[in-house]
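Subject: design request, 368 residues
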């Protein structure tokens, strides 16, 4: 076995700490070729699709990629912004704001960057850059509050696969989940209350989580249970009874049974049963993306109204809300315990320059 070449190192250089905020990923552009590349990487992950590889290769390359890429590209185009992919833009801003808040709390020797599990910037690319910057302690922070082998488990696979080819492996901390953390639940509560204050309150609050095949639950994946615990804690924080909210699962793919009830058919049935207004939040997504902006705010809204519903209110993801950035900082601080997170004067100056560069990049994104 050969290992990748280690970057140049000067003895006496202080080691740095880093937090990597990892989200799922996004195509580089809302075009068929870009979406095809993204889907190929995403759907080739055995964590995502647990079908025998030879059979899945034929399905993916002969059916899904040729036909679904253009359809998905059109959907991405409907939510793309001047800044780019909403998911990527929100994750970049979250990382920048988290870094700033950690600095204000005294953790000025902590670098915060974002990476994507699929697409760019790729997780291996970001980890290589951190190594070149002498980051000896790295905390991996998934953007997924609820653990699933299909998401957080896949991030762990990618991290350990990357370091299997590295001679000098840094100290690693893998943050598994935070589905029941106070800061996360409080941020969700504040988001719902803020929406209700402006728009009034609907007849029922639907909490829609991304779906996974039912067999993963039967095989021991804790995702289903963690989604329901998040929902229960949020409902309690909002003072809702069990009749005033409902948990559903969206984004079903293929013919196999997934976690139920399914979001879209449930909304249609609600409208047919006479429900006039529904409020919907997607607690499992911390950044707005295709699954929230197109699948829910556009498609689900249309389905509900076409079935007789009068008002459909989508409550945006946490994105860059101050309560969520504070919650992220709380979660991160718990996993930084025992690390020296205070900078030397030289480190402080370097971190200041890096942060200023990040702010300039964010401003350029906003102006583009």
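Subject: RE: design request

Done. Sequence follows.
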């Amino acid at each position: 076995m050969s290992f990748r070449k280690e970057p140049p190192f000067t003895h006496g250089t202080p080691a740095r700490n880093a937090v990597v905020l990892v989200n799922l990923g996004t195509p580089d552009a809302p075009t068929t070729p870009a979406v095809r590349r993204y889907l190929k990487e995403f759907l080739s992950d055995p964590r995502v699709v647990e079908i025998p590889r030879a059979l899945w290769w034929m399905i993916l390359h002969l059916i899904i990629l040729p036909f679904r890429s253009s359809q998905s590209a059109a959907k991405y185009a409907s939510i793309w912004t001047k800044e780019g992919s909403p998911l990527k833009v929100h994750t970049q801003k979250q990382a920048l704001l988290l870094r700033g808040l950690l600095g204000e709390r005294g953790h000025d020797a902590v670098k915060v960057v974002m990476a994507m599990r699929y697409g760019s910037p790729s997780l291996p690319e970001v980890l290589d850059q951190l190594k070149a910057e002498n980051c000896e302690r790295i905390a991996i922070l998934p953007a997924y509050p609820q653990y699933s082998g299909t998401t957080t488990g896949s991030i762990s696979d990618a991290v350990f696969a990357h370091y299997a080819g590295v001679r000098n492996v840094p100290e690693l901390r893998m943050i598994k989940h935070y589905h029941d953390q106070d800061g996360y639940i409080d941020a969700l509560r504040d988001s719902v209350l803020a929406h209700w204050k402006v728009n009034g309150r609907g007849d029922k609050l639907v909490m829609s989580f991304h779906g996974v095949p039912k067999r993963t639950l039967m095989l021991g994946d804790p995702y289903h249970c963690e989604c329901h615990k998040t929902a229960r804690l949020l409902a309690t924080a909002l003072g809702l009874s069990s009749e005033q909210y409902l948990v559903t699962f969206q984004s079903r793919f293929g013919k196999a049974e997934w976690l139920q009830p399914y979001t879209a058919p449930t909304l249609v049935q609600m409208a047919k049963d006479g429900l006039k207004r529904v409020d919907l939040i997607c607690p499992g997504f911390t950044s707005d993306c295709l699954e929230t902006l197109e699948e829910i705010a556009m498609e689900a809204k249309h389905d509900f109204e076409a079935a007789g519903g009068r008002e459909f209110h989508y409550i945006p993801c946490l994105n860059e809300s101050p309560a969520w950035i504070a919650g992220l900082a709380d979660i991160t601080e718990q996993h930084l315990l025992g690390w020296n997170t205070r900078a030397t004067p030289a480190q402080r100056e370097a971190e200041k320059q890096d942060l200023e560069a990040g702010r300039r990049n964010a401003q350029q994104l906003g102006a583009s």
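The longest strand covers residues 16-26.
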